[in-house]
Amino acid sequence: MSENYFKKYPSKDGFYKEYGGAFVPPVLEKEMKKIADSYFTISKSHNFISELRSIRKHYQGRPTPVYFCNRLSEKYGGRIYLKREDLNHSGAHKLNHCMGEALLAKYMGKKRLIAETGAGQHGVALATAAAYFGLECEIHMGEVDMKKEHPNVARMKILGAEVIPVSSGLKTLKEAVDSAFQSYLKDPDNTIYCIGSVVGPHPFPMMVRDFQRIVGIEAKEQFFDMTGELPDNVVACVGGGSNAMGIFSSFLEDDECSLYGVEPGGLSLKKGEHAATMTKGKPGTIHGFKCYLLQEEDGQPQPVYSVASGLDYPGVGPEHSMLRDINRVTYDSVGDKEAIDAFFELSRLEGIIPALESAHAVAYALKLAGEKPHTSVLVNLSGRGDKDLDFVIDNYGKDYQI
Predict the structure, then answer these.
(1) Of the four listed, 189, 275, 289, 401, which is most buried by Cβ atoms within 10 Å?
(2) Which one from 46, 58, 89, 93 is the annotated catalytic residue?
């Protein structure tokens, strides 16, 4: 990794080596260029930076703390720390890029925000941003996810967003993206599609990464202040990969820090029972960009599954795809049962209820701490578990004595 990494990646065409790009219909090519040009211009301006910093401090409640898990560490070994993005306003890391994207929309004169959501955290964050800036908001969500994540559906509606149920295909995240793109195509002049992760056509993987870099910047400084050194291991869950890129970004050049991206192993690694893109996928194109992709022989995305609605996506961020190829980040998977076990362990040993997405990272950290008992593990706890309570109680309550 060179010191000019963030100037080198992505390229001017939005590529991270062979991954990324912008494979979009002609009607959107002009709009993608307009968004990229506006971002490069506005994001370097004093007014934009000052307003975003003020929002982060006075509205979002940043910086979020790093917390040492004393009881969890005693039980499993190692020294386990959490970057508490669950304490970010709206309950997850998603607001970091949603406020940035909405602020960009405001500066571009857009009137409407549109997006997909899986677990509902991105939808809630974007609805929050829309309310803050006085913009219209439309969120597309698969019917399966709407049922699993009902509390977040209610939150979006209370915040004033229009929630569009998606009934096609598996009725989950991939179909929600398809639906949102179709709606966006109808009026790109007045609308901006606020993609919810480091995926999609350029410039979105870059923009979302840049807005999420605040997580890594804070965590690196906080961890050093607490311990006098950098973490030996940094762990984050990966669906599209926004929270992972946010925290990894500050440690890419620190070779002493091992980085781990944790994907959903689901029920098994059989087709249709997981979303472990890095483990079972191969390079392909989805939703306007190239990445590792779980795909059929004809290139169409495979069906995917995870207990965590925010992770069941057949693709992954193009930057993650590159980091896998150059062996800077190790990608592995955690199954549903391990994630549920970790959900309850963190809740009952530390009094912190994680999102099911984040529980995948916690589960991997517990395993890592046992294997490397004399090292430190920093986990990006990307969200809180309020949204998952009904689902967990209904499906796992008896097993965990609820």
Answers:
(1) 275
(2) 93
